[in-house]
Write a structure and sequence with these properties.
By secondary structure, the chain is mainly α. About 65% of the residues lie in helices and about 0% in strands. Helix 2 packs parallel to helix 4 and helix 4 runs parallel beside helix 6.
C-alpha cells in the first residue's frame, strides 16, 4: 500500500482510500507514509483523511504530527488532529504551545488541556486567565470550571497559589 501511495500522486481518490486503509494498521510505517502524504499532497480531502487517520493512531502519531507544525500548508489540520488525541502523552505538547505567538493556537491548547484531569494542566489554565487574548481567557475559564476540584487541590498543596485559588475558588 505504501508503494502504491507513492506511485499515484495524480489520483487523489486512490490516495484517499489508501490513507484510510493505512490508518487502520497502527504500524510505524503507516505513520511515516501518512506524514509523508500530509507533506506532499495539495488535495484538501487527502490531507484531511491523512490527519484523521493519524489521529486514529493516537499517541504513536503525536511526534509525527508535531513535526509538521512548522509547515504552513498542514498546520491547521495538524493542530486539529492533535486536539482530538485524548491521551496524556499529548499534554507536554499543549503545555509548550502556551507561549506560542498565535492566540488561536493558545486557545486550542487551553481548550484541549481543559479536557484532561491531570495536575500538570493547572498552571497552564491559570496562565490562560492572564492571556491578552479574550478567546484564550474564555477557554481558560471554561477549563477551570470543569476542573475546579483539581485546581482547588493544587492550590491547597501550594503556598504560592494563584489569587483565584487563594480566594476560595
Amino acid at each position: 500500500l505504501v508503494d502504491l501511495l507513492h506511485k499515484t500522486p495524480e489520483d487523489p481518490e486512490l490516495q484517499w482510500f489508501i490513507a484510510r486503509i493505512l490508518g487502520e494498521f497502527q504500524h510505524p510505517e503507516a505513520v511515516i507514509a501518512l506524514v509523508n502524504l500530509l507533506e506532499s499532497t495539495q488535495e484538501d480531502e487527502v490531507v484531511e483523511i491523512a490527519a484523521q487517520m493519524l489521529t486514529h493512531m493516537g499517541p504513536r502519531a503525536i511526534a509525527a504530527l508535531t513535526s509538521l507544525l512548522d509547515k504552513p500548508q498542514s498546520r491547521a489540520v495538524v493542530v486539529s488532529a492533535l486536539a482530538q488525541i485524548q491521551d496524556v502523552a499529548v499534554i507536554p505538547y499543549w503545555l509548550s504551545v502556551m507561549t506560542d505567538p498565535d492566540a488561536r493556537l493558545r486557545a486550542i491548547a487551553i481548550k484541549t488541556l481543559g479536557r484532561f484531569h491531570d495536575p500538570r494542566i493547572v498552571p497552564a489554565l491559570l496562565q490562560g486567565l492572564q492571556d491578552v487574548s479574550a478567546k484564550v481567557r474564555q477557554e481558560a475559564i471554561a477549563g477551570i470550571s470543569y476542573r475546579a476540584p483539581l485546581i482547588s487541590s493544587a492550590g491547597s498543596q501550594s503556598s504560592d497559589s494563584h489569587p483565584a485559588i487563594s480566594s476560595g475558588f
